[in-house]
Each structure stands twice: as structure tokens, then as C-alpha cells.
């Protein structure tokens, strides 16, 4: 981004006073490292420490998914010979049910306690936390309005903007918090929805569709594309679609929601192709909008893109000297882990340390559906388009002995290695807990390990990770015999 890199010759300074707008992962991780390095750090946060990540997004959704996973395991346990009294049968579903008010109480309690823990650790690190709404005042000051309506100006030598994002709304499908919901309102439900229509088949939509189905709701997923999860590995998305079909999730594909209205007892979702879906509730999962309006960016010379995201480079600099940005407000990659990394990089850069720029191709990410889909590095689409020359091995988990013991019938490991050199450059794992299995492959991608390094590392027998080394072993043949397809 030319406009940003024109700053490269700007004089480096190690700021004494750092002000951070937003206490999510982008803000609080930066605050911790800056305070550790001896800076005087202040965070301005209007909702609660941990940000949306902790209060409405990652923590509550993953806690809900943990309950859905517990239900899945209970319901699948008859296949292991487990019986629940005389009425149980070999049928896949048992009589387990989710006490939704308890489930939601638990997840909100967990989110608030996590927010308090973060508040306490950040404060213990010596960071000042101000509860209030802030806006940038040029060059690097923040004007704060507290809940009581008092306004003060916080003077700083450098600023990090980490204001995150909020759910996108469609004019014809306004959430009412009762029947038509966005993901921040989904935790108000006291009963499992009878029929949840989820609009949007990206990661958030797919995760909620999967969870609600496992929790016992009828689910219809409205997808504008041919396949759910358009940004993910197509083999993984196709496996998930089959798994959805088996679990009873209906997918209304190749259509968008034109409008969502409340009816007497539920909702009516009209699709652009004329179909009308009736449900009890509708969850809108159509993406996020960066929180970049009315925070003084333009006046301070901080450029935004057409989508409203703050323009940053790979060391988190914006177009204004001394102003950095991290997280969802930058639109780099909307993940808590990336936000935190951008925040840490911003601090390292402003303090003149040797900085490793953000490398998105090393980011490990996960879709918390059932099964999970974890990825790192180069993708199948990039290989197919010719951007990367790679050998690929895809190994189904069905033959893995541990998978058989665990009654895992679907899932795979896919590894990409650079053609000729055999370096691991990407991977996909589709399995229960794929989020935990991807780490060794992320390590291999980050440290440019050879497939033989992965294949030559002991794995536990029997284990799902045995399939990681087995896939790497099979890739060895491609390196040894380069002509093999
Ligand atoms: C349903 C859902 C599930 C997700 N699950 C995952 C996951 O499993 N893993 C993952 O890595 N990512 C996940 N994400 C993405 C993740 O939530 C975001 O990437 C992450 O929250 C970004 O962190 P952030 O610091 O940029 O912003 P946020 O976490 O949004 O924090 C920004 C903070 O800034 C505050 N703020 C905004 N404006 C102002 C202002 N003017 N003054 C004061 N304070 C202000 C807000 O109150 C907020 O607390 C999920 C997202 C969603 C929607």
C-alpha cells in the first residue's frame, strides 16, 4: 500500500506515553507488551476489557459450541455401546436435550469472568484503563467521554486504534433481538429455537448452524454461493455440506435473503429467488462493519479503504505518523489471533525493535463446526490457480486406527509441499478438534520444515496425529520422485 509505505523514512521514536483506543485482543495485547517495555500506557474502552472477542464473539460462541459438542458426543455414544436406561436404542440421536437458559447463562458468566480476568491482568501490568468512549484528536491524543458525560484529553506520543467491528445489518432484515437476531443477541434465547434460519454461510453462519443443529434445533442455512464456506478449502466445505445433510441441516444455496420479517409466531425469510422460508428465529450472519466512524480518523490524516477499514501496512502503521491500528478495524484478517499479533507488532515497531512483519500466510485458523476445519498456509485454490507449485497429499482419517476407535468416519489431512524442495507450505485438517491438530503443521509452515522432518517425528500410536506424519511420509515420494503426479 503505497500511501502507507511512504512513511518508511519517518524518524523512529520510542514513545513514553502510548494511548490505545479499544480493549479487545488488538488493544490489550499491545498494552501488555508496551507496559512490559516500560511505556506509560492507557487504554480507553467503552464496553469492557477483552472487547467483542470476549464479550460477544469468540468466547460466547465457542462456549455454545462446546455445549453443542458435548451433546454430539452424548448423542453419538450409543455407537460405542453406551446405554442410557432401557429406552435407549442404537439410533444416532438419544434423548439428551439442552437446557438453553442454563447454557446461555453459563456462557455469559464465562465471558464476563474472562473480561474481569483480562481487566485485572492488564491493570496489574501497570496499564491505566479508562471506561469511556474515545476519539482521536490530532496528532496523537485521544479525547475521552466517560459514561458520566465528562470529557478529558489524553495526551500521548503514539496511538493504537483497535476499535474492532460490529455486525452488518440489512435494511430489510433488521434484528429485533427476539426473533431476528445478530450474533451478539443470540445468547438471549431461553429455549432451543424450534427452527433457526441462519442467513450467511461464511464461518460465523456455518458455526452457528452446526451448533444449533447439534443442540436440537431444526436449521436452515441460507447460502448465496454454490458451496458453504466459500473462503475455505473446497474439499473441506464439501465434506461439511455432506455432514450437514446427514445431521439434518438444510442448505438453501445460491440465494440471498431479500427480507426477513416477523410473523405472529416466528419469522418469514424471503429469498431473492422467490422462495419463502418460515422459521421460529433468524440469525443474521452477514459479516462485520469496522468501527471507524466518528472517531476522528479523517481529521488526523488516517486513511480508510472503501469498506471503511483503516489502511495499515504489515507493521501496523496507518497513514498518519505515530498512529497505528490493529485488529478488525483494519480488515487484515478478522481473527483475534491476528488482532493480537498486529497490536504486538505495532508496539515493537514504535519502540524501534527489529520487527517481523505480519505474514498472513502463516496464520492458523479454524472453523468450529462439527467436524472442525483447520487451515494454515497455502490453499488448494492458490495451488490450482498456479500461484504456488506444490505437491499435495490428502489422506482420509477413515483408515486411522484411533479414528476407528473414536467412531470418526469423516475427515482428512491434506498437506501441501513446495514442488522440488519438499518444504511444507500449507495444510488442512478436517476432524474433531482439528484446531488442536493443526499446530504441528503450523510450526512446519512457519519454520519451513521439510516433509521428512514431519514424517520423521514420532507420533503417539494410536493417535489422529499419526495421519499428519503419514501424509508427510507420502509426500516424501513426490520429492524423491519428482515426476510422480
Ligand atoms: C461470532 C464470532 C465468532 C468468532 N470466533 C473467533 C474465533 O474462534 N477465533 C478467532 O480468532 N476469532 C474469532 N472471531 C473474530 C474475533 O472476534 C475478532 O477478530 C476480534 O474480536 C478482533 O479483535 P479487536 O481487538 O480488533 O476488536 P474487538 O474484540 O471488537 O474489540 C474492540 C473494542 O473496542 C471498543 N471500542 C470501539 N470503539 C471505541 C471507542 N470509540 N472508544 C472506546 N472503545 C471503543 C469496543 O467496545 C470493543 O470492546 C469471531 C467473530 C465472531 C463475530
Automatic annotation (TrEMBL):
| InterPro entries in the cross-refs | FAD/NAD-bd_sf, FAD/NAD-binding_dom, FAD/NAD-linked_Rdtase_dimer_sf, Pyr_nuc-diS_OxRdtase, Pyr_nucl-diS_OxRdtase_dimer
Q: Does the keyword NAD apply?
A: no
- Pyridine nucleotide-disulphide oxidoreductase dimerisation domain: which residues? 364-471
Query: This protein's superkingdom?
Result: Bacteria
Per the UniProt record, one Pfam family is Pyr_redox_2
* Domain FAD/NAD(P)-binding: residue ranges: 17-343
Q: Which cofactors, by name?
A: FAD
Q: Provide this UniProt record's keywords sorted from A to Z.
A: FAD, Flavoprotein
Question: Among its keywords, does the record have Transmembrane?
Answer: no
PANTHER family given in the database record: MERCURIC REDUCTASE (PTHR43014), NAD(P)H DEHYDROGENASE (QUINONE) (PTHR43014:SF1)
In the record, the note on similarity to other proteins reads: Belongs to the class-I pyridine nucleotide-disulfide oxidoreductase family.
Q: What is this protein called?
A: NAD(P)H-quinone dehydrogenase
- Organism of origin is Nesterenkonia rhizosphaerae
Amino acid at each position: 500500500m503505497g500511501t502507507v509505505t511512504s512513511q518508511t523514512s519517518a524518524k523512529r521514536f520510542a514513545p513514553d506515553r502510548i494511548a490505545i483506543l479499544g480493549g479487545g485482543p488488538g488493544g490489550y495485547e499491545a498494552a501488555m507488551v508496551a507496559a512490559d517495555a516500560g511505556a506509560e500506557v492507557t487504554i480507553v474502552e467503552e464496553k469492557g476489557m477483552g472487547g467483542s472477542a470476549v464479550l460477544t464473539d469468540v468466547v460466547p460462541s465457542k462456549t455454545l459450541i462446546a455445549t453443542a459438542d458435548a451433546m454430539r458426543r452424548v448423542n453419538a455414544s450409543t455407537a460405542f455401546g453406551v446405554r442410557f436406561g432401557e429406552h435407549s436404542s442404537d439410533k444416532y440421536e438419544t434423548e439428551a436435550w439442552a437446557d438453553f437458559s442454563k447454557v446461555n447463562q453459563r456462557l455469559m458468566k464465562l465471558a464476563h469472568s474472562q473480561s474481569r480476568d483480562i481487566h485485572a491482568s492488564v491493570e496489574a501490568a501497570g496499564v491505566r484503563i479508562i471506561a469511556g468512549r474515545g476519539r482521536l484528536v490530532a496528532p496523537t491524543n485521544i479525547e475521552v467521554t466517560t459514561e458520566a458525560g465528562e470529557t478529558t484529553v489524553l495526551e500521548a506520543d503514539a496511538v493504537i486504534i483497535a476499535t474492532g467491528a460490529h455486525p452488518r445489518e440489512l435494511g430489510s432484515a433488521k434484528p429485533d433481538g427476539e426473533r431476528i437476531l445478530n450474533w451478539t443477541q443470540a445468547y438471549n434465547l431461553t429455549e432451543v429455537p424450534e427452527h433457526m434460519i441462519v442467513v450467511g454461510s461464511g464461518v460465523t453462519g456455518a458455526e452457528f448452524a452446526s451448533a444449533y443443529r447439534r443442540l436440537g434445533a431444526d436449521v436452515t442455512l441460507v447460502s448465496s454461493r454454490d458451496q458453504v464456506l466459500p473462503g475455505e478449502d473446497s474439499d473441506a466445505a464439501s465434506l461439511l455440506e455432506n455432514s450437514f445433510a446427514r445431521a439434518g441441516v438444510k442448505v438453501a444455496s445460491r440465494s440471498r435473503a431479500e427480507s426477513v420479517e416477523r410473523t405472529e409466531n416466528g419469522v418469514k425469510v424471503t429469498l431473492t429467488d422467490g422462495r419463502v422460508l418460515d422459521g421460529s428465529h433468524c440469525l443474521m450472519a452477514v459479516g462485520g462493519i469496522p468501527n471507524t466512524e466518528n472517531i476522528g480518523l479523517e481529521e488526523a490524516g488516517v486513511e480508510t479503504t472503501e469498506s471503511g477499514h483503516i489502511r495499515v501496512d504489515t507493521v501496523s502503521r496507518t497513514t498518519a505518523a505515530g498512529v497505528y491500528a490493529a485488529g478488525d478495524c483494519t480488515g487484515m484478517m478478522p481473527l483475534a489471533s491476528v488482532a493480537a499479533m498486529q497490536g504486538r507488532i505495532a508496539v515493537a515497531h514504535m519502540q524501534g525493535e527489529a520487527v517481523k512483519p505480519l505474514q498472513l500466510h502463516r496464520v492458523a485458523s479454524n472453523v468450529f463446526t462439527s467436524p472442525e476445519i483447520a487451515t494454515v498456509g497455502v490453499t488448494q485454490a492458490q495451488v490450482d490457480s498456479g500461484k504456488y507449485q506444490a505437491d499435495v497429499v490428502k489422506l482420509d482419517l477413515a483408515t486411522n486406527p484411533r479414528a476407528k476407535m473414536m467412531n470418526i468416519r469423516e475427515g482428512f489431512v491434506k498437506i501441501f509441499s513446495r514442488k522440488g524442495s519438499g518444504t511444507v507450505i500449507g495444510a488442512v485438517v478436517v476432524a474433531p478438534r482439528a484446531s488442536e491438530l493443526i499446530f504441528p503443521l503450523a510450526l512446519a509452515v512457519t519454520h519451513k520444515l521439510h516433509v521428512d522432518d514431519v514424517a520423521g517425528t514420532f507420533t503417539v500410536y494410536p493417535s489422529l496425529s499419526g495421519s499428519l506424519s503419514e501424509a508427510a511420509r507420502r509426500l516424501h515420494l513426490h520429492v524423491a520422485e519428482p515426476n510422480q503426479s
